[in-house]
Sequence to fold (349 residues):
Amino acid sequence: PAGGFTLYGESAIGIVPDLGAAAGRDKLGLSEDAFADVRIVPMRLRAGDDASCLNLNHAQQPRLLGVDPEQLSGRFAFRDVETPPAPGGAKRAEEAPPSGWAILRADWGEDVVPAIGDYPTVYWALHKRLGDEIEYVDDRGRAFRVRIVGMLEGSVLQGALLIDEEAFIARFGSVAGGQVFLVDAPSSRAEAVAEALRRGLRDYGLDLTPTAERLARFHTVENTYLSIFQLLGGMGLAVGSVGLALVVLVNILERRSELAMLQAVGFDKHTVGRMLAVEHIGLLGAGLLRGLVSAIVAVWPAVRTAGSRIPIGSLAVILAAIGASGLVWILIATRLGLHGRLLDALRSE
Fold:
């Protein structure tokens, strides 16, 4: 999700010198010693709606980021990519079509700019799919269409669409310099690099955030919705345990003659009741265990995603509530089922 980057930054105004090059950092007065083995990818920003999960409103025109596709080559995982058309509409030759970030430089037709966004932005925030288009107006008042040609898995780039930097400059030439930055720094030096950038670029209002923290912020919103549905689901399961009581009660009533036989051969009613309770509690425990294992297997890929965490506390409370509710209803059903004289059921046989 972080694409190998450790820091995500945004500045209040554009930074014209290229932060990704030593010459640009020298113009900004940044010491090159602090940036050994550090790679910075600057991106131009066209302001627009925040299309991340942090914005509860429906985004109409999301922010656009202009980036050099080559600088992101091999970064981030693609969920889906649309195959670009062959030049001139002709049938594509044997060579493989552009893929990955290279599709941002493919020809998609007149007044069409290809864009890549991450899946939560495209599908949930914009309610769009691969191949859908969004209309924009450039600096000269000319309309053009941004076509979604690729989707990333959830990433730190959530909330914006990325287009080729050359296409960005052609339509938004008034936007000078980069305003969004991805920083690939060794984890052990990430904080030192961030401090050097903040101190050296304080006049530009640069704000840097660890990518893990940014991802966790996105997941916090998603987890809030999941927690609500989790609570409702837990309540539904707890109420559904009433149905368990009915099943247990019917089962006991249908077996009254069998239970009467046990009492006739010497088992007292309390012993029979304990046998029935243990039998059904065992079934309840087995059901909870199988459900828990199945749930863990289903969500394990998502749990391994950076920034995700397992709400162990709330899950334990829900499981305990379901187990306690089921236990209570089993005991109640057992008591009701054994109410009265069991031997009367044996006489009716």
Q: What stands out?
A: The mean pLDDT is 86. The chain has nine helices and ten strands. The beta strands are 7-15, 39-46, 63-67, 78-81, 112-118, 133-137, 143-152, 160-164, 178-184, 207-210.
